[in-house]
């Protein structure tokens, strides 16, 4: 699996290179700034990219803006944002193309290398993987929306777990309920949000995230 890494801190960048190489990835490029990231993604068209939000030259949202720009040229390019910050505006824009293959993880909450690598593989395979704090920030942004206010507390919890990329079985285990109960909650959520029900987990997550970003 071919990967591009964008991280301006040299020690962390080298650490990511070693982690991915040790787990069977081919690191085709590792860059430390926004313009180089754009060139690397358009030149190599990797299977997945792991990108920090704040890169030179602006140290603001250079990494996110770079991947948003590239995904307009290469729709659905799998991207995992690995950052210390939740940039709500660009996080929503990144998810708004409904192309999937997006992850947003917070550096200080990545507790296990194996889990992190598995998340990157999920995104490379076309799934969506979100840190719960990122989901919470997006939900808070939309918390006053009349449609979200129609959800029960349990439906709100299911929605948050779906947006993290969890399957019905995983949600059931987390909430200590049956999969049938989760399916019922999911159906009600989609009905209240005006979204077409779907048994496809990835399309379901994308629909929810697309709604939340709007």
Automatic annotation (TrEMBL):
The keyword Repressor does not apply. Residues 144-214 form the HTH luxR-type domain. It comes from the Bacteria. Keywords: DNA-binding, Phosphoprotein, Transcription, Transcription regulation. This is Response regulator. The modification 4-aspartylphosphate is found at residue 52. CDD domains: LuxR_C_like, REC_NarL-like. Residues 2-122 form the Response regulatory domain. It comes from Streptomyces vulcanius. The keyword Transcription regulation applies.
